[in-house]
Design a protein that fits this description.
The protein is an alpha/beta fold. The chain contains 11 helices and 4 strands, in the order ααβαβαβαβαααααα. It folds into 2 domains: about 130 residues, Divalent-metal-dependent TIM barrel enzymes (TIM Barrel); about 55 residues, no CATH class. Helix 5 packs across helix 6.
Length: about 250
C-alpha cells in the first residue's frame, strides 16, 4: 500500500496553511464597506484534491478570518444528491451565508438556467432562506446569477433565470408556516409535505405580473425583451467584431 507522502504532489495541510495566510492578508485590507466571499467547489481544477472543496472548508476559513468573511453557495457546485437546502440553513443559522451564485446542473457545474434541472430544489432552498432571515431587510445575502448560456440566447436566458428565482421565492413565502410547524411538532410527515406542496403547486405567475406592474415594470419580461428589438440592434452593432470566448 502506497503511503500518502508519495501519492500526492503536495502536502494538504501545508496548502491549507498557505491559503489561510493569503486570505488573511487580503482580509486585513478590506475597507469598512467591503467583505470577503469565499466560494467552494468539490472539484475543478483538480479531482483528487481541491483546496476549498466544500462548504465546511470555506466556513472554517471564514470563521478564522472574522465576521466580514462569508461563504458563497453556488448551486451548481455540489455532488449529485447533496442536500443544498441543509447547507443553506446551516450557513444562515451561523450568519455566514454571504451570497448565492444561481445556476443549475445535471452532472457537474453545468451553469444551466437556475431551476432548469430541479425547480423543486430551488423552492426548497428559497424556503430555508425565507424562514432563516435571508430575505429580511438588511440581509447580507447577495443573489447573483452565475451561468453560461451556449444554446439559448444569453440575455433571454438571464431573464428566464430571474423569473424562475422570483417564482421560487413567491412560492416559498406562501408556505403556511403555522400549519407546517404544527405538522412538524406532531410528527405528521404527510401533513407537512402537503403544506409544502400546496405552496409549490400554486401558480404565482399572475401575482408576479401584478407585482411588476405595481413597480412600473413590464409584467411580461420575456415578451418585452423580444419586442424591444435590442437583440437585433446589438447583433448589427457588433458586425465585424471578435466573438468572445473562454480565451478572450
Amino acid at each position: 500500500m502506497l503511503t500518502t507522502s508519495i501519492c500526492r504532489q503536495d502536502n494538504i495541510s501545508d496548502r491549507q496553511d498557505r491559503l489561510a495566510e493569503s486570505l488573511a492578508k487580503v482580509y486585513t485590507r478590506l475597507g469598512d464597506n467591503q467583505r470577503m466571499l469565499l466560494e467552494y467547489k468539490f472539484f475543478e481544477p483538480a479531482f483528487y484534491h481541491t483546496d476549498v472543496p466544500d462548504w465546511g472548508t470555506s466556513l472554517l476559513h471564514c470563521m478564522a478570518l472574522g465576521p466580514k468573511a462569508m461563504v458563497v453557495v453556488d448551486t451548481g457546485h455540489h455532488a449529485p444528491g447533496t442536500n443544498i437546502e441543509f447547507i443553506v440553513a446551516g450557513l444562515l443559522r451561523a450568519k455566514r451565508l454571504g451570497a448565492f451564485d444561481f445556476n443549475s446542473r445535471f452532472y457537474a457545474d453545468d451553469d444551466l438556467i437556475v431551476g432548469a434541472a430541479d425547480p423543486f430544489q430551488l423552492f426548497r432552498i428559497m424556503h430555508e432562506v425565507n424562514i432563516n432571515g435571508g430575505f429580511d431587510v438588511g440581509t447580507p445575502v447577495s443573489y447573483v446569477l452565475d451561468q453560461c448560456h451556449n444554446i439559448e440566447a444569453k440575455i433571454p436566458g438571464q431573464i428566464r433565470s430571474i423569473m424562475n428565482v422570483q417564482e421560487a421565492v413567491a412560492k416559498a413565502v406562501l408556505v403556511d408556516q403555522d400549519a407546517l410547524k404544527k405538522a412538524q411538532l406532531a410528527g405528521d410527515v404527510l401533513a407537512g409535505h402537503e403544506v409544502l406542496m400546496d405552496a409549490y403547486n400554486t401558480d404565482v405567475r399572475g401575482l408576479l405580473r401584478e407585482w411588476r406592474s405595481d413597480k412600473g415594470i413590464d409584467p411580461e419580461p420575456m415578451k418585452a425583451y423580444a419586442a424591444s428589438g435590442y437583440a437585433k440592434k446589438i447583433a448589427a452593432d457588433r458586425v465585424g467584431g471578435n466573438q468572445a470566448g473562454w480565451g478572450a
